[in-house]
Please model this.
Amino acid sequence: GTYEKFKATGDFKVLGTRCEIKNVNSFKFIQMAAEYEARRQIEILEDGGKIDQETRLYNAEKNITRSMRSKEDAQDYRYFPDPDLLPLMVSEQQIERIRAAMPELPDAKRQEYVRLGLTPYQAALLTSNRQVANFVDEGRKGMTQSEFTRFANLVAGPLAALLNEKNLDISKSKVSPLQLRTLVERVSDRTISASAGTIIVPILWAGEGSVDEIIAKRDLKQITDGDVIEKIVDDVLAQNARQVEDYRAGKEKAFNSLVGQVMKATQGKANPAQVNEILKAKLSR
Model:
């Protein structure tokens, strides 16, 4: 009957007139009060009665409601116009003036970041806080799409990890947007590898100097000399004959392992693209 229809659809309209329930102070009691009211009203309706629009008090111990007062329409709530309130007229010029003074809103900023190459998740992360978005905008000016993606990854990755660890917001960051921008430039011009860029962020936070000073002090400059990389590749191939055979037998994962061995031998300083190119050339012989 009516109760089965209510249980199946959750549609209170099948019960007719509404009742307001007071003294309901938990999600559990909301459910219990609603189910009690549904049964009470269904019994009245199926007996040919009529539901009164009223306020009822819920008793959690007895799981029942009882009538407090009737409420027919808005006038029963004593609603009336306030004679001291004058009409508020807002002109189109006022609206446009306010709109022009408003900052860029998060949705627009997210869409802009997605257009610039970030994933929706990355864009949402970097626009969840206006200070973070301002930090990103300060550092990204004039960047290419790939540089902006790398910059965003540094903000959302190692920098965010440091801020969370110290329980600080980005306005208290010890790494500036300009420093991260310089770091991205050093990856782009192949001075350092992308992995070295990630390593440098906490070193910048510790105040060990500028990006270039850290690269020099820590000997992080990327190895781009083809002859040097080739010799290291030869050594790795000689020491990993089994993986060489696995790759030539069609096991692609063996190639990634060999790349990893070369990068390990160079402490991550070899240019990954050159490592891949040289390895493939030698393994195809």
Summary: The CA atoms of residues 6 and 241 lie 72 Å apart. Strands lie at 20-22, 54-59, 64-70. The two ends are 80 Å apart (CA to CA).
